[in-house]
From TrEMBL:
SUPFAM superfamilies reported in the protein's UniProt record: Nucleotidyltransferase (SSF81301)
Protein name: Ribosomal silencing factor RsfS
Record flagged with keyword Repressor: yes
NCBIfam families reported for this sequence: rsfS_iojap_ybeB
Organism: Brevibacillus panacihumi
């Protein structure tokens, strides 16, 4: 079975949703940056929830054979960046998400949705 970046995106979405991540937004940045294909942005309501979301994303990625290139900010639980190469996830504390407003900074990116079945 060939795995696609969209498969990885679906896996990350499910992992984040399983830990009650809020306002999950997926931005297609393929044509805007060489950093990744997708940015995912979500938030938790406190540091502990942010850390739980990040752990679930990391654990599910490892379980399914994806490589986690790096995680920054996990200990603080305010703005955590998870680098899965083609998918970069920003997990914010609710207050920090409102402050940094990455959706505004990447306003030229298309917001996309993924169905569960592909």
């Amino acid at each position: 079975m060939v795995r696609t970046v969209e498969d990885l995106a679906r896996l990350v979405i499910k992992a984040a949703e399983d830990k009650k991540a809020e306002k999950l937004t997926v931005l297609d940045i393929k044509n805007l940056s060489v950093i990744a294909d997708y940015f995912m942005i979500c938030h938790g309501n406190n540091e502990r929830q942010v850390q739980a979301i990040v752990r679930e994303i990391r654990d599910q990625a490892h379980k399914h054979g994806y490589s986690v290139r790096g995680i920054e900010g996990e200990e603080e639980g305010r703005w955590v960046l998870v680098d899965l190469e083609d998918v970069v996830i920003h997990v914010f504390h609710r207050e920090d998400r409102e402050f940094y407003n990455l959706e505004r900074l990447w306003k030229d990116a298309e917001v996309v949705t993924f169905s569960e079945e592909g």
